[in-house]
């Protein structure tokens, strides 16, 4: 989305829309086997961690060690939600 220049660059805008559709498709698929109360927070958490990693890898963004700690805690929370959901 960042590379779409506020949705002014057609190729990146179309890529962003395609990514959103794929992402929602995964959420729809997840809700077929999991309750929404589990699927949505896991989906959101994966998106948050993914956005952080994309920023670091593609845009050379830097985050502090303290931020890394919270990213790790977020991953632990996502895994904990999934593992304790009984599904």
UniProtKB/TrEMBL annotation:
Keywords: Cell membrane, Membrane, Transmembrane, Transmembrane helix, Transport. Its main location: membrane. It is a multi-pass membrane protein. It comes from the Bacteria. It holds the Pfam family Multi_Drug_Res. The chain crosses the membrane at residues 12-31, 38-59, 65-81. It is found in: Cell membrane. Belongs to the drug/metabolite transporter (DMT) superfamily. Small multidrug resistance (SMR) (TC 2.A.7.1) family. This is QacE family quaternary ammonium compound efflux SMR transporter.
């Amino acid at each position: 989305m960042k590379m779409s220049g506020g949705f002014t660059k057609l190729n990146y805008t179309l890529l962003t829309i395609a990514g959103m559709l794929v992402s929602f498709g995964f959420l729809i698929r997840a809700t077929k086997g999991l309750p929404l109360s589990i699927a949505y927070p896991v989906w959101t958490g994966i998106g948050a961690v993914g956005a952080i990693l994309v920023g670091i890898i593609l845009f050379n963004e830097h985050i502090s060690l303290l931020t890394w700690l919270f990213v790790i805690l977020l991953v632990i929370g996502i895994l904990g939600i999934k593992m304790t959901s009984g599904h």
